[in-house]
Design goal:
The complex is a heterodimer. Chain A is built from ten helices and no strands. Chain A is mostly helical. Classes of the chains: A mainly alpha, B mainly alpha.
């Protein structure tokens, strides 16, 4: 087919520079990544455990690591540099490289959907993000995982805990969205 | 090469970098480093997150099932089904996710795409992690012990074999693929 380029611009953009890929292919990619991670390093994909270890490491700067290790939670999930630390950091690196390559990197304080509902105040958005992040991680640790550890890694192994997590999380999210963003009509 | 490779070895750390890099690229190109895309899932306005997650579950699950059948994988890596703790934690997680607009993985990735509110939420996650550690003793005794079934899988609980579950998930995937509208929230000019 010899479609003129100006009528078919997306086809001219190389895959590496496109701002988005087909979500089904991205999902398949994450599925295949999970095969490799299980097979090669015998671990599930996960993120929230490492974030809570990071919070323990930060706490240790104030109290010393001995005091942190006396905490019953951090005694079993001891903060230490390792595989999951590198994984977390390089998840960020991957997103950075990807957004630079597609020219979608932007400094953002108030996203569009928030702005439509709550206005342009950066302080309001920042406060909500902070409180939301705190509730999110507290819940992830209580449940034993997050969208990665439960939502993908656990569900694909047919874990009872993960399917319960997946369903309750979705229902609670929809309920919260109805409160925060009531429909206008 | 002997698998699995130790995660504390140099090779293990190098692999962590490669896996993380690929994960971060996929999250960004899947558009789930965008606050609007995630929040709009819960408003039934954008199905990108569900498309990605469900495809990952079906593709990942069938592959892991096959590798387990072939004897390449010896064990499952699943979390305890403490029914009360998981349900309460998931409810908090869902509420927090809508308020924050990200989950832990996409939040970390979004910080690296310039989202300053994602960074603020990361600071919130640190506080949430400290709060959990401080309250862990009470939570463990009073919440995690309720409905504690252990590391159980659906096939054991339901007596429906793995293969039937994956057949069901594949059918649901086809239905979603046919029903869910194409497209997603347009790339917003961020402010």
């Amino acid at each position: 087919m010899s479609t003129p380029l100006r009528n078919n611009v997306t086809a001219a953009v190389p895959v590496w520079k496109r701002a988005s890929w087909n979500p089904y292919l991205v999902g398949a990619g994450i599925g295949i990544l999970s095969w490799l991670v299980f097979l090669v390093v015998n671990k599930p994909l996960g993120m929230s455990t490492e974030v809570s270890k990071f919070s323990g490491w930060l706490a240790s700067l104030f109290t010393g690591m001995d005091a942190v290790k006396e905490n019953p939670y951090w005694a079993k999930t001891t903060p230490a540099f390792g595989y999951s630390t590198v994984f977390l950091v390089f998840t960020a690196v991957g997103a950075l490289v990807s957004s630079l390559a597609s020219k979608t990197f932007r400094w953002e304080t108030v996203p569009a959907v928030w702005k439509d509902r709550f206005g342009v105040s950066p302080a309001k958005r920042m406060a909500a993000a902070f409180v939301g992040g705190a509730i999110l991680l507290y819940g992830a640790r209580m449940a034993g995982g997050c969208t990665s550890g439960h939502g993908i890694s656990g569900t694909l192994q047919l874990a009872v805990s993960s399917w319960l997590f997946f369903i309750v999380m979705f229902v609670a999210g929809v309920g919260t969205a109805r409160l925060l963003f009531p429909s206008k009509n | 090469m002997n698998l699995p490779i130790s995660t504390s070895s140099g090779a293990g750390l190098a692999l962590a970098a490669v896996f993380g890099l690929v994960f971060g690229i996929l999250l960004n190109r899947g558009r789930v480093t965008d606050y609007n895309v995630i929040v709009n899932l819960f408003r039934f306005k954008d199905w990108t997150v569900l498309k990605i997650m469900f495809t990952a579950i079906v593709v990942g699950g069938i592959g892991v099932f096959a590798m387990t059948g072939a004897g390449w994988l010896q064990e499952y890596h699943i979390k305890d089904a403490n029914l009360l703790g998981v349900a309460l934690g998931a409810a908090l997680f869902g509420a927090g996710m809508v308020l924050y607009g990200y989950c832990p993985g996409t939040g970390v990735a979004a910080v690296a795409t310039g989202s300053l509110h994602a960074l603020m939420g990361f600071a919130g996650m640190i506080v949430g992690g400290v709060a959990y550690a401080l309250s862990y003793g009470w939570v463990k005794e009073n919440l995690l012990s309720v409905g504690a079934l252990g590391k159980v899988r659906l096939p054991e609980v339901t007596h429906v074999p793995d293969i039937a579950w994956f057949a069901l998930l594949a059918v649901v995937w086809v239905v979603l693929y046919r029903l869910l509208p194409k497209g997603s929230t347009p790339l917003a000019s961020k402010g």
